[in-house]
Every structure is written in structure tokens, then in C-alpha cells.
Amino acid sequence: MVGYTLRQERERQNLSVNDIEQGTSIRAVYIEAIENGEYDKLPGAIYTKGFIKNYAKFLALDADAVAKEFAADMAEIKAEQEAEAAKAVAESQSEGETEVKPVQPEKKPLGHSIQLERRAPSGVLIVAAVVLIAALAGFAWSQLSSDGDVAQVETPAPQVQTVAPEPEPEPEPVAEPVAAAAPKSDVVSVQARFNNRCWTLVTVDGAVVQEGIIDGGQTLSWEGKEQITFRLGNAGAVEFFQDGKSIGVLGAEGDIVDKTFSRQ
Fold it and tell me: Does residue 139 have a pLDDT over 80?
């Protein structure tokens, strides 16, 4: 775990949590949460990553390597949570299963259909025979009384309907292609180089992540989803970089300046 790595190095250098807080401006409660792996007490993964990188830089560790170790820890935690959720779903489904018995068709007595057949009235057959004989006699009489001529049936000529051609649809105007807007970055990344002491308040996406006096000679980084806001008590002492591009200082020595960086 990355917290164990940082705590072990801090203790090796005989540094206390308060020493780290003063040197990095990270609150002691966040430092302890990082070392104990209690990520639920931290403001979020992006902010935690920034804390860990600043912590590692203060201890002269490879900040990128420590950040990768943190990412691996988060992936392991996520996998464990997904496995527990899948197990809970499987258990709830097994408890809800019930045995379904097939419905047996109703058995009727074998003699039922036989009795219906036997009850069919014989009078119906007699009436049917009389009707058939009368029909045959009528047909024979009509054949004998006819004169043998066959009437010719004239077939009317088919009428041809003239269908007016449908007007051709007018071509729809072709819309001119609109140039696609340049995609925004997924995060906003800001780096500050402190050339002198400066009281600094840092707010990332509405949450205060750093507050206090930062000594000169330090370079700190922050990442956010939407925006990062700075309040500086000595604007001329801090040089800013956004997404690797130099912004420069935001004012003169002693100026109090507020500045917000948003995604580009």
C-alpha cells in the first residue's frame, strides 16, 4: 500500500506528521488517512493523488512511481468491492428461488366422449339424406328443360386509367459541415513554483485542499475535474503553469490576488 511506503519513509527520516503538514501544507488528518489507507476520509481520488505526489516530493521520493502505486491500490480496492457486490447479488437470487411444480392437466373419464357420440340424434342423418335427394332432382330437371344454347357473356374491355406523373421532389439543401470544436481536457492541471514565501489558499472543485504559508523553493501540483481556485497573499512570489504551459506570476510582490483555472 502506498500509505505504508510513505509512512515508512517518513519514520526513516525521523519526521512527524506535523513536519509533513508544515512542509507540504497538507492537513494532518489527510496525511494520517493516506498512511492508514482510509481513502474514504479523503476528498476524492484526484485530490488524493495530488496529496500523495506532494507528500512523495517532500520526502524526495519518485512522485510518479508513488502515484502509480496509488493507482494500483485503487484498482485492487475497486475489484474487491465489485466481487463483494456480485457475491451479495448471487446470494439474494439463490434465496429468492422457489420450486415450481408443473400443472397437471385435468383427467376426464374415458367414457365421456363416447357417450357424446352415442347421443348424436339419428334424425339429423335422415333430414340430410332428404335434402341431398331433393337437390339432385332439381339439378336434373333444370338440365332437361334447358334448350342447350349456351349464352355468350361479353367481357367489358378494361378501362385504362391515366395516372398523372408525380412531381419530382426538390433536392434538399446540403448543410455545410460545421467544424468540430476542439475537445476539452478531462482534467485541469496546475503547477505552482514558489520563489518566495506566500500564504496560499487552494480550492479544487469547491473543496479547500490546501491553506497556509508555503516557503520559497517549492513546486506543487494540483489536479481537478472542473476548476482550481487560488488566493495568494504574495502574488509576485508564485509562478504558475497550466497543462505544462507557463502562465507567469499573477501580480506584484505583496499583492493579494484571486485566480481560477478551468479546463481548456
Answer: no
